[in-house]
């Protein structure tokens, strides 16, 4: 990571727990200063640099505002890159995934909007539990494997909640 740390960009200490409102406010503030429109009359090089700074600021913001991406980033900062498609050696969670997928299919088949809302609330609770568990162990070398397992679970739940939002939109139409 040759570029400055995403956290440093926002004057934050590297930590999983981030004040998202503070992050968003700082992002808006920084985005105004590097916005390419401000460099419309500048040299071509300055315009290109402004574009690059704007792009890296946006990338840093997108990473830090997403719990799974922030978790992966923290592990990477500590020299732990997760394999992209790691097989989940987590039989309990595999069973849970199958259960959630079946439940989501049933909700889709029955077009049950209130059932989808209840499912979404349970999913959010599961995500919050995972976030707390990760926050408690990510920077403890003795719990690194646990942190990696939790990140994989977070990634799955993030993807599932995206699918739930899509289903909700389809049922709302």
Automatic annotation (TrEMBL):
UniProt entry tagged with the keyword Cytoplasm: no
InterPro entries, per this entry?
A: DnaJ_domain (IPR001623), HscB (IPR004640), HscB_C_sf (IPR036386), HscB_oligo_C (IPR009073), J_dom_sf (IPR036869)
Keyword Nucleotide-binding recorded: no
CC annotations in GO: iron-sulfur cluster transfer complex
One of the entry's Gene Ontology molecular-function terms is: ATPase activator activity
A matching Pfam family? DnaJ
A GO biological process held by the record: protein complex oligomerization
Where does the record place the J domain? 5-77
Which keywords does this chain's UniProt record carry?
Answer: Chaperone
Per the similarity annotation, which family is this?
Belongs to the HscB family.
Q: What does this protein do?
A: Co-chaperone involved in the maturation of iron-sulfur cluster-containing proteins. Seems to help targeting proteins to be folded toward HscA.
Subunit architecture: Interacts with HscA and stimulates its ATPase activity.
Instruction: Please identify the protein, giving its name as recorded.
Output: Co-chaperone protein HscB homolog
Q: Which organism is it from?
A: Pseudomonas indica
């Amino acid at each position: 990571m040759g570029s400055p740390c995403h956290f440093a960009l926002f004057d934050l200490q590297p930590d999983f727990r981030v004040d998202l409102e503070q992050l968003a406010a700082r992002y808006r503030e920084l985005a105004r200063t590097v916005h390419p429109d401000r460099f419309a009359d500048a040299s071509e090089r300055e315009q290109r640099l402004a574009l690059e700074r704007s792009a890296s600021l946006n990338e840093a913001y997108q990473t830090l505002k997403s719990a799974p991406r922030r978790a992966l980033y923290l592990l990477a900062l500590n020299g732990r890159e997760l394999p992209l498609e790691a097989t989940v050696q987590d039989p309990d969670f595999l069973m849970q995934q199958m259960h959630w997928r079946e439940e989501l299919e049933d909700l889709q088949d029955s077009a049950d909007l209130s059932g989808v809302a209840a499912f979404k609330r349970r999913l959010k609770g599961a995500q919050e539990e995972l976030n707390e568990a990760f926050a408690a162990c990510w920077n403890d070398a003795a719990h690194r494997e646990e942190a990696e397992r939790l990140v994989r679970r977070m990634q799955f739940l993030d993807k599932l909640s995206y699918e739930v939002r899509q289903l909700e939109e389809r049922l709302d139409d």
